[in-house]
Design goal:
The chain is α+β, with helices and mostly antiparallel strands. About 25% of the residues lie in helices and about 25% in strands. It has 11 helices and 18 strands. The structure holds flavin-adenine dinucleotide.
């Protein structure tokens, strides 16, 4: 293993600041040699794809950075399947696809890498096209014991079947994925209705959104103020009757503006006016993602709870946001996966950051995240494990609430395919 740098140039500041033991780019046998990791510190190998989480680099841990050698993107023009390396970021993927008038259901940011796909991948387009994992056709990579794997949908033997299902949602615990083949979709124009609203308006808009057709989704963020995006894909450039009727109901909100974007690539969610702290180099941060079903009659009581959470925020970086899934993500016709909470229609997340040198502020910010999570549990009882938190106290509970009755299968896979615990711990 070569020691190239001890810092990583990536979006997540916690990981960017980590003083690495080693930074490596290649997968060779030495990677799977337990002697390279220290037992006392429960050291394991960190994997970096988009580098947007706090777990892709840690003080005195080795990071495998996939961005350099696993960054290829190739579209097969006959099948319209795209093959990407395990270190490709979602912005590069959709920019590439746009040149061929194709698209993929990426999330609200272009920065995340393959971690977005492997952890499920909730997109504003998911109600129409499913989660990112629902669109995986094949994968290549290595298990934690060093074995190379190539798995193709509908061509799996019984032993491969469980690995395939677990890679879709929980692959990070026992595999390193170097290549993913994905379905793509025709790129269509997007109509966005967006703006600042107050809590009563948010309440009404959430109620409307729970009846939206599959091509429309709501995303909202409550930071210092509340901002919403209603995202509508206009298939074949047309606003069909149901879309028109659904969007017309938003005309009564005076602050909302309508814009049409040629395609998904042109949209930037959460612009500067929101004054978010996400990329502030002086701050470290954490985020917990939840899952739950439609609020229906609970909307008023949820809004009250949300308001209390925001009233108690310890600093201005803190926010709660939510994105809408449902429709196609509820269907299991893509095959089984370890994203088990298929009934979910909302994915809220709770974000907080703190001055990176202030441990007391860190404790207060994390405490706010945990308290807010406890209060939101009655509405959103489950977890979307989009970030690995094995460095936080919440890790075990998050695992249980993310994988539920598949946890034992995951533990078995971990024991068999990562017996030395080279990859992140369960
Ligand atoms: C601004 C922002 C917006 C987001 N919006 C959404 C959204 O709309 N929908 C949504 O679902 N999520 C969203 N996320 C969450 C994001 O998709 C997940 O946190 C994801 O895990 C990040 O992946 P990454 O590759 O960028 O992260 P990294 O920090 O590079 O990786 C995270 C972990 O994933 C594992 N991993 C990554 N790549 C591989 C691989 N090739 N093989 C094996 N393991 C791997 C590693 O264990 C790694 O520690 C958002 C995150 C951010 C920062």
């Amino acid at each position: 293993m070569k020691n190239n740098h001890n810092l990583l140039e990536i979006p997540n500041i916690n990981s960017k600041d980590a003083k690495l033991k080693e930074l490596i780019y290649d997968i060779d046998d030495s990677l799977f040699n337990k002697d390279n990791y220290s037992k006392e510190k429960c050291e394991h190998l960190c994997i970096c794809s988009g580098g947007t989480t706090s777990s892709c680099a840690k003080n005195d841990f080795t990071t495998l950075d996939l961005r350099k050698n696993y960054s290829n993107i190739h579209l097969d023009k006959e099948s319209n399947l795209v093959t990407i390396g395990g270190g490709v970021i979602m912005g590069d993927l959709i920019n590439y696809l746009q040149k061929h008038n194709r698209s993929f259901p990426i999330g609200l940011s272009k920065l995340p890498g393959a971690g977005y796909i492997l952890t499920g991948g909730v997109s504003p387009l998911s109600r129409a096209y499913g989660l990112a994992i629902d669109n995986i056709e094949s994968i290549k990579g290595f298990l934690g014991n060093g074995t190379f794997i190539y798995l193709k949908k509908n061509k799996l033997n019984p032993e491969q079947q469980l690995i395939w299902e677990a890679i879709k949602g929980a692959g990070a615990f026992f595999s390193i994925i170097t290549e993913i083949e994905l379905k793509t979709f025709q790129s269509n124009p997007i109509k966005i209705i967006e703006g600042f609203v107050n809590l009563d308006e948010l309440s009404e808009i959430v109620q409307l959104s729970e009846a939206f057709p599959e091509n429309i989704s709501l995303q909202w963020i409550y930071a210092q103020k509340i901002y919403i995006y209603v995202f509508a894909e206009l298939k074949n450039n047309l606003e069909d009757k149901r879309t028109e009727e659904s969007l017309m109901l938003l005309d009564k909100f005076p602050t909302l503006e309508k814009k049409i974007y040629e395609n998904f690539n042109k949209i930037n969610f959460f612009p500067k006016e929101l004054k978010l702290y996400e990329l502030n180099a002086n701050n470290h941060s954490e985020v917990i993602s939840l899952l739950g079903e439609d609020l229906k009659n609970d909307i008023p009581i949820f809004m009250k709870c949300l308001n209390e959470i925001m009233d108690n925020k310890p600093n201005n970086s803190c926010y709660v946001a939510s994105q809408q899934l449902g429709c196609k993500t509820k269907k299991l016709n893509h095959g089984s996966s370890f994203f088990i909470h298929r009934k979910s229609t909302w994915k809220p997340w709770i974000y907080a950051s703190w001055n990176k040198n202030d441990l007391q502020e860190k404790e207060i910010a994390l405490d706010w995240i945990y308290k807010s999570w406890r209060n939101l549990k009655r509405f959103y009882p489950n977890i979307h494990l989009a970030q690995l938190h094995n460095h936080l106290n919440s890790h075990e509970e998050e695992l249980t609430l993310a994988f539920g009755n598949r946890m034992n299968e995951l533990k078995t896979l971990k024991n068999i395919f990562d017996p030395q615990g080279i990859l992140p711990p369960l």
